[in-house]
Input
Amino acid sequence: MEDITNLTHITNGWFQAIEKYGTEYGLRLLGALVVLVIGLWIIRLLTKGSRKLMDKSNIEPSLKSFIKSLVSILLKILLVISVLGMIGIQMTSFIALLAAAGLAVGMALSGTLQNFAGGVMILMFKPFKVGDFIDAQGHSGVVKEIQIFVTILTTPDNKTIFIPNGSLSNGSMTNFNRQVNRRVDWTFGIAYGDDYDTAKEMILKLIGEDERILPDPAPFVALAELASSSVNLTARVWVNAPDYWGVLFDLNEKFYKNAGKAGINIPFPQMDVHLDK
Output
């Protein structure tokens, strides 16, 4: 009879403990679920708000998608850690382990992360865009694609070049399409003894016949140098950026074809050799 009584007391103690902990953890679990649902709803609102803000900022579509996903993932990780802490799970060791793992991965992928950061900077500040002709890192070409880690160029002879965004964002770069207008420069050599005024008048006439050359700023022609074997004239004009190469090559050709007709000799280096008997 005494054994039955002791068993009853033990059983009642178990039930009381189960009821106590069940009530306590049940309330914690219920509260955690409520926080999880509300947190997911708030994260969805924040994600939509950030997307609308980026739409107003004219950020590249590829960067918009990446930032949206990154913000959503980070907020969800923080929410899950908070919910697990509410249930009673100790997250200190987990967070320390996560930080150590992140540090190790960051050190192993330092170059990749640098390229990623460079890609973000390029997409945000837009030093160039798709279709621009740039010169950077010893390569020149038309920008065909800006990815998050690399920028892809196509050279004039149709080669494809991949430039890491880290070095591209940290190094010097020339964008030939950034400005609307470009200046075209020539150096024309004439022989000593040729009439300078005739040569200058011929160059100005050839410039005036090309409608692609802008009248303002006005074309400029002047004597630049008395070189060892030629008298060099400098010519400078302004054109719309897309017309640069066409104007440059065409005026070279016209000068060569018309110099002889105007009595202008195009000199070339010569050497006089004297023999002593």
